[in-house]
Amino acid sequence: MKALGLRCYLRMVRVGWAIPAASGLLVCATALVLIALPAERSALVGTQRQLAGVNAALAVPHQPSQTRRAATAQGLAAFYGALGQYATVEDEIGILFRIAGESGLSLRQAEYRASFDRSGAFYTYQIVLPVRGPYRSVRQFCEEVLNAIPFASLDEVKFKRGAIGEPTIEAKLQFTLFLTDRQVTSGAVLAETKPSARESP
User: Fold this and answer.
1) What is the DSSP secondary-structure string of the chain?
2) Other CB atoms within 10 A of residue 92 CB
3) Residues 6+ apart with CB under 8 A from 9
4) CA distance 19 to 27
5) CATH code given to domain 86-186
6) Residue 108: phi, psi to the nearest 5?
7) For helices 89-102 and 135-148, what crossing angle results, to 10°?
8) 132-144, pLDDT tens digit by residue?
């Protein structure tokens, strides 16, 4: 027995402690892997569940919320509420001529053209108005028309002066009225707009 123990001791001295140390490290590493593996597997399962939840949410068709639908309806009502009424366009033309007379301008034959915007479901009513008078009066007339008719726009102005230094000018003004035949009340659109016989080709 003593001889066998001595031989083992001498072999350990020759080989060194590398093999036993490596064996110990291998045992420790194996133990750590066995301990960490369940935790990693649990994290992977949790990630897979989250991914499945996201995919399920994306697969559901998007439905606009009640709040969004209400906001859209209010926006449309505000838009159509800002437009003028097509049925009373003659009143707006009367206002335009009244302001021209108050500004001291002389009017010639006006041109009118109505059209319907199908994408926005509203009417545009163009008025080409030749006027004659001082430049300041023409400018004042344009400003007062836009103030009196908030749904009107001044799209084009052309000036013509007979001679240099002449105080009177001739101008061709193009206004556009934005109109609807919808009835808007309490934030709701009550009637659909449809092209009528009054629309010009």
Assistant:
1) -HHHHHHHHHHHHHH-SHHHHHHHHHHHHHHHHHHHHHHHHHHHHHHHHHHHHHHHHHHSPP---HHHHHHHHHHHHHHHHTSEEGGGHHHHHHHHHHHHHHTT-EE---EEEEEEETTTTEEEEEEEEEEEEEHHHHHHHHHHHHHH-TTEEEEEEEEEESSTT-SEEEEEEEEEEEEE---EETTEE-S-----TTS--
2) 20
3) none
4) 12
5) 3.30.70.60
6) -110, -175
7) 150
8) 999 999 999 999 9
Give this prediction's pTM: 0.58
Closest-CA residue to 172 (of 148, 154, 151, 186)? 154
The two tokens of residue 38 are 């369940």
- Within 10 Å of residue 49's Cβ, how many Cβ atoms? 10
Q: Decide: 174 and 141 in contact? Cβ < 8 Å.
A: no
Q: Distance (Å, rounded) from C-alpha 85 to C-alpha 126?
A: 14
Count the Cβ atoms, other than its own, within 10 Å of residue 181: 20
- Provide the residue type at 169 as one letter: I
Q: Taking the domains of the chain in order of start, what are their residue ranges?
A: 86-186
* pLDDT over 70, % of the chain: 57
- What CA–CA distance (Å, rounded) separates 167 from 88? 36
